[in-house]
Amino acid sequence: MELKHASQPFVDKFYAIDVPGSLNNHPILQLESRKEVNLKAWRSLPPLQGLNMGLTAAGEAQVLATAKVDKKNLPVLAARKVGEGRTLMIATDSAWYWNFRRVGEGGSGRHYQKLWENILAWLTRDPETRLLKVETDKEKYREQEKVLVQFKLVGEDYNPLAGKQAELTLSTWPDRSTLKTESIATDENGEGRYEFYPGREGFYAAQVSLKQGDRTLTERELFSVTSPQVEFQKPRVQPEFLQKLSEVSGGSYRVLRPDLRLDTLAFPNPEVEIKTSKLFVSLWDTWAAYGLILGFLFLEWYLRRKSGLS
User: Could you state, in order of their start, the residue ranges of all structural domains in the chain?
Assistant: First the structure.
């Protein structure tokens, strides 16, 4: 668990929470995309009520939010990684104030909803919560087109890690034949990038690996390279063909200029007449059909009589 318990009285007081500045980049705390707006959102949340005075952070737990009660900073929200799993604890039963009370005061409960979305994404190891993220600027490329591979590395507090050496391996997929291996250092934003030309069509993989503490982080991004077809190499308008097509089909050919308004164009709408006719023929109108039906009925009666049936 994230918090250790000691025998202390339960304080039934109102208190505001505080988010540590060092954890501003943690995905659970991202109520808004912009940093200054996000801090303002946390400060605007209604105060909570009720907190156990005996709870303290345990082990490697990260205290994401604290409350100052009786001159003590007490943990309210804490998260921790245990092996390959993740756990989280909220040390109060009044978090619903951020929704119902905010709405009751005429505001919006979207920050409360966003918080729970962030919590669930972090607990389920959503790709956006990984410490190492790898991506390419596109999913599909053409032959001889430049491929840009980018990656970002953050620490356990989700702050960028600069100056870390990462190994980038480019290979074909799924046979995993290595094409290139490069050593790239992260910049001040914890980011690295590499450009290359794959050369021929096929499926490729860009894999980034590096040591982080006592473990190795590895992430991979797949992309494809296709050979452009002839009709897409030099796409252009063919006025002569369009004019001939309009003449044969009875239409008209017009050039659309930038200053031309489509609502001023008049298109002919000729009247089209379709002649239809219907003919109903009753089955009893022909002697042949009538005789055929009577013949089948007589044959059935004869066969039943010969078989001894009534």
Answer: 3-126, 132-226
Strand partners for 215: 212
Q: How far apart are CA 289 and CA 197, in angstroms?
A: 79
CA angle 76, 77, 81 (to 5 degrees): 140
Q: How many residues does the chain have?
A: 310
CATH superfamily of 132-226: Macroglobulin (MG2) domain (2.60.40.1930)
What is the SS3 assignment for 134? Answer: strand
Instruction: Give the torsion sign (CA, 102, 90, 123, 212).
Output: positive
Q: What is the pTM of this model?
A: 0.65
SS3 256: coil
Fold of the domain built from segment(s) 3-126? Rossmann fold (3.40.50)
Alpha-carbon span 193 to 8, nearest angstrom: 52
CA 16 to chain centre: 34
What type of residue is 73? N
- Give me the phi and psi of 216, to 5 degrees please: -110, 125
Q: What count of other Cβ atoms lies within 10 Å of the Cβ of residue 213? A: 8
One digit per residue, pLDDT tens: the chain, 310 residues? 455 555 566 778 899 999 988 888 999 999 998 989 999 999 999 999 988 777 777 778 899 999 988 788 888 999 988 888 898 988 888 999 999 888 888 888 899 999 999 999 999 999 999 999 999 999 999 888 899 999 999 998 999 999 999 999 999 998 889 999 999 999 999 999 999 988 788 999 999 999 877 789 999 999 999 887 655 666 677 888 888 888 888 888 888 778 877 777 777 777 777 777 777 766 666 777 778 888 888 888 888 887 777 5
Neighbours of 288 (CB within 10 A): 7
Say if residues 47 and 15 touch (Cβ distance below 8 Å): yes
Per DSSP, the three-state class of 168 is strand
What 8-state DSSP symbol labels residue 234? S
